[in-house]
Design a protein that fits this description.
The chain has about 110 residues and is mostly beta strands. It has 1 helix and 11 strands; from the N terminus they run βββαββββββββ.
Length: about 110
């Protein structure tokens, strides 16, 4: 019998672990184990205005950001949906339309 939680989005029982995340193969929803297990995270991530950020939030970029190793720029006002919080200096993991997967610092975004 599996002790993995059901998917909070579609209630599928076929979830699996992938590193620090749970994944639902039916609806492709991902959520962190920490939230699923109910443990408290002492590292609270805050945006430029001091608002607490959580995985799944939508944020807006408040400064033009150059993409390292490229000529691309993430412009002010770019909306980033469904962020994922990670450990480290760049504490937001996300996908930006037209650029792809990247990591951002929380000090350069505000909660939408």
């Amino acid at each position: 019998m599996s002790t993995l939680p059901q998917c909070p989005k579609c209630n599928s029982a076929y979830t699996y672990e992938d590193g620090l995340m749970f994944v639902c193969p039916e609806c492709a929803h991902e959520w962190p184990k920490v939230i699923a297990e109910g443990s408290n995270d002492l590292n609270i991530v805050r945006d430029a205005n001091g608002n607490e950020l959580k995985s799944g939030d939508t944020v807006v970029v408040i400064k033009d950001l150059k993409v390292k190793g490229s000529t691309l720029v993430v412009k002010v006002g770019t909306k980033v949906k469904n962020i994922r919080l990670v450990e480290g200096d760049h504490d937001i993991d996300c996908k930006i339309d037209g650029i792809g997967a990247m990591q951002l610092k929380s000090e350069f975004v505000k909660k939408a």
